[in-house]
Amino acid sequence: MSGVRIAVVGAGIAGLSTAVNIQRNIPSARVTVMADRFLTDTTSDGAAGIFRPSFEKIKADETLVRQWVSDSWKHFDCLWRSEEAREAGIGSVTMYQLFDKEPLYPLFKEFVYDFREMTDRDMKRFHGNFKMGLACTTLTTESRKYLPWLTDRFKENGGVVKIQRVNDFSELIGDYDIVVNCTSLSSKTLAGDNLVYSVRGHLLRVKAPWVKHAVYDHVTGAYIIPCFDTVVLGGTRQKDNYSLEIDPEDTKRIWEKCCRLQPNIKKAEIAWEWVGLRPHRSPPRVEKEMMKFGDKELKVVHNYGQGANGITLSWGCAKHAAKLVQELIPYIHSKL
Amino acid sequence: MKKKICVIGAGVIGISTARLLQETLPSCDVTIIAEKFSPHTTGDVSAGVWKPHALGDTPVELQSKWSGNTFEHLLKLCMGSEASLAGIQLLSGYLLFQDYTEDPSWSNQMLRFCHMTPRELAQFPGYRHGWFIITIKVECRRYLPWMLNKFKSMGGAVLQRKIHSFEEISADYDIIVNCSGLGSYELAKDKTMQPIRGQVIRVRAPWITTMGCDDATITGREPYVFPGMDDVVLGGTHDYGDWNTEPDPTDTKRIWEGCCKLFPSLKHAEILEVNVGHRPGRPSVRLEKEIVTSGGKAIKIVHNYGHGGGGVTLHWGCAQEAVQMVKEWVEPCVTSRL
Question: Quick one: how many helices (H) and strands (E) in chain B?
């Protein structure tokens, strides 16, 4: 078992979380993270990272989803209550969700610190025709702090980071015993998977330190989430849109609907804007595959397709993927 | 003939009273005279959180009326487009207790009041009971200048000067509204007043969005953490009769340690300032008319001082009542009751 060579392809939140989990489960493994995009160039960069998973958005076996969510929550909760919260970019926030009809079962209710129905008086302060509101206190994760934090954990346990673009997994045969695929949308070509597609998100990051609560308007799709030192205003959900260019029409629409929802946003200054392509897949793919390239084989563990819940599910899915990697190890030297 | 009204004091009580006078009695000329202006007033040191506490002998119904009216006023400002300029924000979080504590009389005045869940309490070892509340935080360092600017733009006059006696200015004004806080110890010769010394540490910790406060008020030194727009305020102290204006290093250490226990991630927060303020303590709030005779002349005074730690919580409601009293003098045939 010593010296197993593992390549984690992709250095977004899935890749880094999986790499760290593998190191913890298999201390003797030699883990390399390889990617051509890091940190602020990854998909999770601008995301608010608010923990609010739902069965509507994560269409997979309920038991599995619950396990991913539970493992992730425990991890982020523990970090939040530790001295490392700031360095890791973890914050807690009270979040309000406003609906014009009865919402489907909110899975996160089973984990967050508190969960309540909003009173009429509470709902009145938001502008819109809302029939029902849910309030909870949950966690946010700021990728601009969390990814560097994960990278530090990975490197301090002997992990190696390689700047390398992988055009085909067959390139890695011979140099690595197991490949972990965390390449999100690139899995379309690298894993020949048509089930994964982009759901384009555009958001604004503004300076509004007087906003201490998050709010989701499920009627207009507007949302406001205070993060580390800026407030996220969003958003868009454009299926199969792969453009990373900022569309000023979207900017205007997001700004207007957020200001209508909560007028005290009007005096906020825009700090930066960002477009991210959520890698959506129903279900998210966390599974083993023996990929064949001619007469050669490659042991692969896939971990991608978490879509809008990439940050929320990151640790739970990474833990699962690391377990799958462990299950493959007995088979490494058996093909002689 | 235009009546001339002088408001003494430019803290949260003085400026709000002056603003409301301007709006309610447009026929009068209003002048604010004060020695200290923001950021040197008592309110500027405070975290400015709306949270009633028992104010000695002040009748509960009165406190309730004043605090309730203040909350509604702040709530309107809070959700409007000027909120950030006025320094008003919503704040939610936890009031923590080591033992079960009865719900307070003001519980329904806040936007939200309920008991903490076990999972919420688990974040704070050592506390067995708590309340989750949604209240309002006022940044006086923004609120006071914002109100003062409105006051000036509506024609209000402002003079920077220390007043030693009402007689000094009685010739120039028809009615004096005394909002001098602790200054009334000398100015109104009110020896029932005493300072309640508060020390706070202001830190930069934008990742803290929820407040945490040990609300036991047994020693007066229980820790509290109130995140605001410009900083997070850590406290505190409640030292009766202590006039010391310098930060005490023992207090600083105790506040720091207590607050880091509530939120361990604070250990990495950058300290911005350590401030000391003196709450204007009094057995009860003095909100009443007085006529003082001096050299044969009657000086009409409305007193509005002695709010202790409740200045921000009560200011608008008290200003409304003070203005009503002034109105009774200005328009006696309309409002006087026999």
Answer: 11, 15
Strand B175-178 versus strand B4-8 pairing type: parallel
Residue contact B209–A84, C-beta within 8 A: no
Q: What is the maximal distance between C-alpha atoms in chain A?
A: 71
**Model's pTM, two decimal places?**
0.85
Planar angle of CA B117, B119, B124, nearest 5 degrees:
100
Both tokens assigned to B311: 């200045």
Q: State the amino acid at position B259 in one-letter form.
A: C
Cβ atoms of residues A307 and A199 within 8 Å: yes
User: Considering only CB atoms, which residues of chain A are within 8 Å of chain B?
Assistant: 80-87, 89-94, 112-116, 119, 121-122, 125, 135, 137, 142, 208-213, 226, 228-229, 262-264, 266-268
Beta-sheet pairing, A132-141 with A178-181: unpaired
Locate A78 and state its tokens.
Answer: 């523990």
Structure tokens at A134: 């849910």
On whether the CB atoms of residues B92 and B134 are closer than 8 A, the answer is yes
**A34: its two tokens:** 């390889």
Distance of CA A194 to the CA centre of its chain: 20
How far apart CA B231 and CA B202 sit, in angstroms, is 6
Q: How far is CA A285 from CA A168, A192, A292, B241, in A?
A: 19, 13, 19, 67
Per-position b or e across A78-102, b if 16+ CB within 10 A of its CB: ebbbeebbbbbbbbbbbbbbbbeee
3-state class (DSSP) for residue A184: helix
- Measured CA to CA, the distance from residue B112 to residue B95 in angstroms comes to 12
Contact B205 A82 (CB under 8 A): no
Question: Using a CB-CB distance cutoff of 8 angstroms, which residues of chain B are in contact with residue A90?
Answer: 207
- CA distance to A19, A22, A316, A319, B185, per residue, from A32 (Å): 8, 11, 21, 17, 72
Question: Do B89 and A210 lie within an 8 Å CB cutoff?
Answer: yes
Planar angle of CA B5, B21, B62, nearest 5 degrees? 115
The phi, psi pair for B160, rounded to 5°, reads: -100, 115
User: How far is Cα A319 from Cα A68, in angstroms, rounded to an integer?
Assistant: 8
Query: Cα–Cα distance between A35 and A159 in angstroms, integer?
Result: 14
pLDDT tens digits, B216-270: 888 889 999 999 999 999 999 999 999 999 999 999 999 999 999 999 999 989 9
Amino acid identity, residue A62? E
Query: A80: distance to nearest CA of chain B, Å?
Result: 8
pLDDT, tens digit (0-9, with 9 covering 90-100), for B62-120: 999 999 999 999 999 998 889 999 999 999 999 999 989 999 989 989 988 999 999 89
Cβ-defined contact of A210 to B205 (cutoff 8 Å): no
